[in-house]
Write a structure and sequence with these properties.
Two copies of one chain form a homodimer. The first copy, chain A, is mainly α and 181 residues long. Helix content of chain A is 72%, strand content 0%. Chain A binds a DNA duplex (30 and 30 nucleotides) through residues 1-6, 8, 29-31, 39-43, 45-47, 50-51. Chains A, B: Pfam families: TetR_N.
DNA sequence: TCAGGTACTGACCGATCGGTCAGGCATGCT
DNA sequence: AGCATGCCTGACCGATCGGTCAGTACCTGA
């Protein structure tokens, strides 16, 4: 089974993304990933220090975009913040839907790992922006429904093009976030 | 550590609910549950045939209510179906928020087990009702955002009373499901 | 020609998983 | 007194987990 392919690193990353999306992070073993690529489990751990490092590398691009959105958010308040947050997050969710989908509810668990501690804070600021920086429970509830709903949904529509998914998600987000009279 | 408590069954159920809600189904071991109650792992498996049976018994009341909603859904179409589905699902989510929360994204995995196969079909009919029985992608996207958003959100507000959470969730659901002009 | 790095393997490790099993200890019926 | 039953235990099982390690085949530059 010895096959000298230097692109293995990228192949492993892609295989991990596929497996994580189906069976989740905890539900996928290094064996599973190795089998999909056709190499040994030891080869996986040659390319990545450990399982968490694999996940970290997989999520890095998405996290970078999330942090850019966070930075952009700082300059806005109220309804403007809502619109920037909705547009930015929908765009992120659509572009990285595969990466987001693979965390399928393991978010709470994974975010507690030190490697993702910062993401935790960023998403709290995102919810705050979705809520228009309001403390009203109704606003915070709506914010969380939109955030979680989009995150869970985007991964279910892997087959339709970005240009169709993006406006549909944005429309439902903006409707849901409309202020209660 | 021998303590003859015949209420152990109920205690185990409650402990399992608590642990599942924090670390998820896969992330919680029978040891964890046993430790929380103060008995042995073998005692857990004396009361429940296996881990899945424990989960099944834990979810049974919520599933019964879900199936009742499904039956009620059959008599409605279009906007009426949307309203019945939204009201019914929000009520279910609020009442059983702890049970729903503990499945944290493990839904896709768990629903594939034969014991929950029926729930899969019911939730597809629910999404269909949310979408007003429309085939338009935008309608189906909105439906999934609402369903997933509510399911994920309700478990995050364990401390506020039903009477406050219910109308807030219903309001955001109805706003999000408003037909696009 | 050969040293050294890259990419990998199979064997192995301790821990933990869900689950089994024989037995023990109260309690209550006969 | 004897025996069944309900409830529970500690010891144990095979499987699988993430991770380590010594060794090896191959390529490259000196």
């Amino acid at each position: 089974m010895a096959r000298p392919t230097p692109e293995t690193h990228a192949e492993l990353l892609a295989a991990a993304a596929r497996r994580f999306a189906v069976t989740g992070y905890k539900g996928t073993s290094l064996q599973d990933i190795a089998r999909e690529v056709g190499c040994s489990k030891a080869a996986v751990l040659y390319h990545f220090a450990n399982k968490e490092a694999l996940l970290r590398e997989l999520m890095a691009p998405a996290i970078a975009v999330l942090e850019a959105l966070d930075a952009r958010l700082a300059g806005h308040t109220g309804a403007a913040a809502q619109r920037v947050a909705a547009e930015g997050f929908v765009d992120l969710a659509v572009r990285f839907r595969r990466e987001i989908a693979l965390l399928r509810g393991e978010f709470p668990d994974l975010l507690q790992q030190p490697a993702f501690a910062h993401v935790q804070q960023v998403s709290e600021r995102l919810i705050d922006a979705f809520a228009g920086h309001s403390d009203r429970p109704a606003a915070r509830i709506a914010a969380l429904v939109v955030l979680a709903g989009i995150a869970e949904t985007c991964g279910e529509f892997l087959d339709i093009p970005d240009e169709e998914l993006r406006p549909a998600l944005l429309a439902v987000a903006l409707r849901a976030l409309e202020p209660t009279t």
